[in-house]
Design brief:
This protein is α+β, with helices and mostly antiparallel strands. The protein has one domain. Helices cover 32% and strands 16% of the residues. Strand 3 and strand 4 form a beta hairpin. It is elongated. About 3% of the residues have low confidence.
Length: 204
């Protein structure tokens, strides 16, 4: 019987190696089943942990929501679909829902964006009052190299864990933290069959 993994994969613990924010506690069970062509028993146990380079507040909020959703039986490995986040815009064509959400937030925060520092004060000029937040939203449109460089609209209930692609399922999150967690979760679930129930654990 394959043993449950209680620590991250060995290579992640080597000196200087990247620390994983997500790994599968029972990865051996799913890897063996995939090799043998059998159906693994039980749910996939996804373990999340914060990394020093993450925004801790955003990570904690994200992780706690996923733990709760797993306890409610609402998480499962979703079918891979690169177009799941697409919406049609009559003016701009096909766009992702996250980018539409980002632009809506920017517009709401910069209703009087034509005003400058010579016109009004931070109290009367929304653009000036929200400039730091708006700059991070714009920053999230491109590549991100570190915490604090940008903001992303994040799916609270991850799409890859069968979450709904809806505006009500989106909220802003540090872009670096969001993208790293999403990538690590995808890697952790690589050998898990679609439709498999997932539960989430949070470790220090």
């Amino acid at each position: 019987m394959a043993r449950k993994r209680t620590t991250p994969p060995r290579q992640t613990q080597a000196k200087g190696a990247k620390i994983l924010s997500a790994y599968l506690e029972n990865a051996d069970v799913f890897r063996t089943a995939k090799t043998n062509g059998t159906t693994p028993r039980g749910p996939a146990v996804l373990v999340l942990r914060n990394r020093p380079d993450f925004d801790k507040r955003d990570f904690d909020r994200k992780a706690k929501d996923l733990v709760r959703l797993g306890q409610e039986g609402r998480l499962s490995k979703a079918k891979s679909d690169r177009t799941a986040n697409n919406v049609h815009d009559r003016k701009k064509g096909t766009r992702t829902r996250t980018n539409v959400f980002r632009d809506r937030v920017i517009r709401r925060l910069t209703k009087n964006e034509r005003l400058t520092q010579q016109h009004g004060t931070r109290e009367t000029n929304q653009y000036l009052a929200n400039k730091a937040l708006v700059d991070r939203l714009y920053g999230g449109r491109g590549p991100i190299r570190a915490r604090g460089e940008g903001l992303d609209p994040d799916h609270i209930h991850e799409l890859q864990l069968d979450g709904e692609d809806a505006y009500a399922n989106l909220r802003l999150m540090d872009a670096w933290t969001n993208r790293q967690i999403g990538s690590d979760i995808a890697t952790a679930l690589r050998d898990v069959p679609e439709g498999t129930r997932v539960i989430v654990k949070l470790v220090p």
